[in-house]
Design brief:
The complex is a heterodimer of chains A (339) and B (292). Chain A has 339 residues and is mainly alpha-helical. Chain A is built from 16 helices and two strands. Chain A is globular and about 70 Å long. Chain B is built from twelve helices and two strands. The relative contact order of chain B is 0.19.
Chain lengths: 339, 292
């Protein structure tokens, strides 16, 4: 019985189990097939500065990683838990402002201000959204659209305290372009691994159950609100972390951190890559950021472009790019496995 | 202090009526089709910009300009339902994202067509009247009168006409309505068009008292969301009362604190209502459990 289940699990992973306890990899083709797509993209990302040292493209790629982390953190909420956040910029902004205030006003060193900023930002964001979690997802979406717009108003109103439109300046920025590239990219890889660990375990199973049938989860004696709160906090930590990184990188935070553009970009990237796939949103982030940088004309109409991508994809192809690529990838299994 | 109260009363009433038109549209489409329409603010902007085009740019007569603007808004609403929402009905998350994307697309297209700077529309009726010693522009009086008229017309439409009754039937039970020979798809589209007209009308009558700007679309949507949550999703009369609560509160905040802070009222209203009574002040609790 147990043996049979193990076998099924291995087959699920696309790996043939030939013997009871070990995988028999029959050929180099099979090894490449199995580990290639899992190893090559991270390696490419890590050696990118060695190949292309143009600071402009390093900047673009760090932006892509920034949006990648934000999109992955959106995915754990929107894709896995069914809490579609229309205001993920709230976390980016809270993280950025927390880190900026800690560093510029209280002189907290950068190695502390970024993680502390991430935690404080996620905590504040969770606090704002906590009342919406008792009801179903729609209320959360409504409130999450409103919250960042309100924060922009609050910042404009409190010009003496939070700097108003000018924002807060003068955070420490001790790194150069290549170092920032590695910081953002490694953040992306780490958050990918962490969030994948979270959502593909028992915890993630409960999240998906909440998304698919909340009353059933409640009936099983699981505290739905607690799980939603924890997920919101986890998601917020990653979004706030990149917000804090960005604040230090630019040595500036302003109301633009709460911009609707961020929230919409994140949703567009996740949808393009594939909702509820974790890798997909990061893929979508790289594609959209590079596309808009490559085609300069698109820069000014980015919002329109993202909106149109969203409409077309959600109506005609809601599965996303990653699932499509995955299907193509799976068809190669036949060719590499010798029967 | 006394002066401030009178100002709050006058301006709050005017704002309350405008917001009521916006929010009742949002509530109507939710009640009939169970769609949370994030594109609602876009209707507000489309009609205001169309009015600017017809009334200021090509100098058409006022009644015709308003009529054409409302027709355009209604057509956009109908098209949004027919082209986009019809295909993804029932998938709530996709509906929400698509309507938000439609709102952004509309607003960005408006930004490309018109100048991004705010535009001005002349008042419909010049002059002012005195309430005690306070001057009130005729435009604001007009807003109140026309809002009351359009709310009465809406009430008559929903209660008395065949289409209105059919719409309520769809809202109550879609399957049963279908068995009675009502086409729920058509009724949902009609509800979308009516709600677009309501939001569009609000956008038109408020346009002369402020500038025509794209930010107003988000402002209208934000307040609309706060009001429907406060009044209970899908409850028309709840929305009406909640619109005045939000209207007075915003004018009070703008008078005493800062006009930037008036949006805070919306968020506070949402959060407080969700903590105390998630179904809204007039929502039915059982319905919330089942449908929301």
């Amino acid at each position: 019985m147990a043996k049979g289940r193990e076998r099924i699990e291995r087959l699920d992973r696309g790996i043939r189990a030939r013997t009871r306890d070990m995988y028999a990899l029959m050929s180099y083709a099979e090894i490449i097939y199995l580990i290639g797509p899992r190893i090559i993209p991270p390696i490419l990302l890590l050696v990118f500065p060695l190949i292309i040292s143009d600071p402009y493209w390093l900047l673009v790629m760090s932006y892509a990683a920034f949006y990648g982390v934000a999109s992955i953190s959106w995915d754990i909420l929107g894709g896995f838990t069914g809490l579609v956040s229309f205001g993920h910029a709230l976390f980016i902004g809270f993280g950025g402002y927390s880190a900026a205030i800690l560093n510029a006003w209280y002189g907290v060193p950068i190695y502390l201000s970024i993680p502390l900023g991430a935690l404080i930002g996620a905590g504040l964001g969770t606090l704002v959204f906590a009342p919406c979690l008792r009801t179903k997802g729609a209320y959360f979406s409504l409130a999450s659209l409103v919250a960042p717009l309100v924060m922009i108003g609050v910042i404009y109103a409190s010009a003496e305290i939070l700097g108003g439109e000018e924002g807060i300046y003068g955070m420490a920025n001790p790194f150069n372009d290549v170092q920032w590239y590695y910081i953002f990219t490694i953040t992306l890889l780490v958050s990918f691994l962490v969030i994948r660990k979270v959502v593909y375990g028992k915890f993630g199973l409960i999240l998906q159950a909440i998304r698919d049938n909340e009353p059933a989860v409640k009936a099983s004696g699981i505290n739905v609100v607690k799980y939603k709160l924890i997920t919101l906090f986890i998601s917020g930590v990653f979004a706030s972390f990149v917000g804090a990184l960005q604040a230090h990188r630019l040595a500036f935070v302003g109301p633009t951190f709460f911009n609707l553009l961020h929230s919409v970009s994140i949703i567009a990237m996740s949808t393009l890559g594939g909702i509820a796939t974790i890798v997909g949103p990061a893929l979508g982030a790289y594609i959209l950021v590079i596309l808009t940088e490559y085609l300069r004309i698109l820069q000014d109409v980015r919002m329109l472009l993202y909106a149109i991508i969203l409409i077309i994809l959600l109506i005609f192809r809601p599965e996303g790019l990653f699932r499509y690529l995955e299907r193509i990838y799976n068809t190669f299994e036949r060719k590499v496995v010798e029967e | 202090m006394y002066e401030a109260l009178v100002i709050i009363l006058i301006y709050g009433t005017v704002l309350g009526f405008t917001l009521a038109l916006v929010a009742i549209g949002l509530s109507l489409i939710y009640g009939v089709a169970r769609i949370i329409n994030f594109a609602h603010g876009a209707f507000f902007a489309i009609s205001a910009y169309s009015l600017y085009y017809f009334f200021v740019s090509i100098k058409l007569n006022l009644i015709l300009s308003i009529f054409f603007s409302l027709v355009i808004t209604a057509l956009v609403g109908g098209a949004l339902y027919r082209i986009a929402l019809d295909r993804i009905r029932g998938m709530e998350l996709n509906e929400m994202i698509v309507t938000l994307a439609c709102a952004i697309a509309t607003i960005e297209i408006l930004r490309e067509i018109f100048a991004p700077a705010p535009l001005g529309v002349p008042t419909f009726i010049p002059g002012q009247i005195y309430i005690g010693t306070y001057i009130v522009e005729m435009q604001r009086v007009l807003i109140v009168i026309t809002s009351v008229i359009s709310l009465i017309l809406l009430w008559l439409f929903i209660k008395k006409t065949k289409y209105g009754i059919a719409m309520r039937a769809v809202a109550q039970d879609e399957d049963a309505a279908m068995l009675m020979g009502i086409n729920p798809e058509f009724m949902s589209m009609l509800a979308m068009m009516v709600s677009a007209i309501l939001a569009g009308f609000a956008g038109i009558i408020i346009a002369p008292t402020q500038t025509v700007a794209l930010e107003n679309a988000w402002y209208a949507l934000l307040n609309g969301i706060a009001i429907v949550i406060l009044g209970g999703l899908g409850s028309l009369w709840g929305s009406l009362v909640a619109a005045f609560i939000i209207g007075y509160a915003e004018v009070a905040v703008a008078t005493f604190l800062s006009s930037h802070l008036k949006t805070v009222i919306a968020l506070i209203a949402i959060l407080v209502v969700l903590v105390i009574k998630p179904s809204g002040i007039f929502g039915k609790h059982r319905e919330l459990e089942e449908r929301v």
